[in-house]
Amino acid sequence: MFPMVTGFINYGQQTVRAARYIGQGFLITLSHANRLPVTIQYPYEKLITSERFRGRITL
Fold first, then answer.
1. DSSP state of 35
2. Alpha-carbon 22 to chain mean position
3. End-to-end CA distance of the chain
4. Nearest alpha carbon to residue 58 among 22, 7, 6, 47
5. Could you tell me the pLDDT band of residue 2, with boundaries at 50, 70 and 90?
6. What is the pLDDT of residue 5?
7. What three-state secondary structure class fits 36?
8. Average of pLDDT values for 26-51?
9. Where are the alpha helices (DSSP H) in 1-59?
10. Are the C-beta atoms of residues 59 and 42 closer than 8 Å to each other?
11. How far apart are CA 17 and CA 24, in angstroms?
12. What pLDDT is recorded for position 59?
């Protein structure tokens, strides 16, 4: 083919690939936004641990 045509095809392929990667990142961001928070308000809510827990307690 002509060099100019292959340049346009290559540019189009790169544009589609970049749009796909941006879309994947956006979907991951939206999936994390839908999750419930796991934050504990420490002085008011205590973390419930089992009686057999022997690990180090961290905040």
1. S
2. 12
3. 63
4. 47
5. confident
6. 83
7. coil
8. 83
9. 3-33
10. yes
11. 11
12. 63
Q: What span, in angstroms and rounded, lies between the C-alpha atoms of 21 and 16?
A: 9
Q: What is the chain's mean pLDDT, rounded?
A: 85
Which pLDDT tens digit goes with each residue over 21-32? 999 999 999 999
DSSP state at residue 13: H
What does each C-alpha distance from 47 to 22, 34, 50, 53, 54 come to in angstroms? 38, 23, 10, 12, 14
Per this entry, what is the length of the chain?
Answer: 59
User: Which residue in the block uniquely carries the two structure tokens 């095809």?
Assistant: 9
Q: Look at residue 14 in the predicted model and tell me its pLDDT.
A: 95
- At residue 38, φ and ψ (nearest 5 deg) are -110, 15
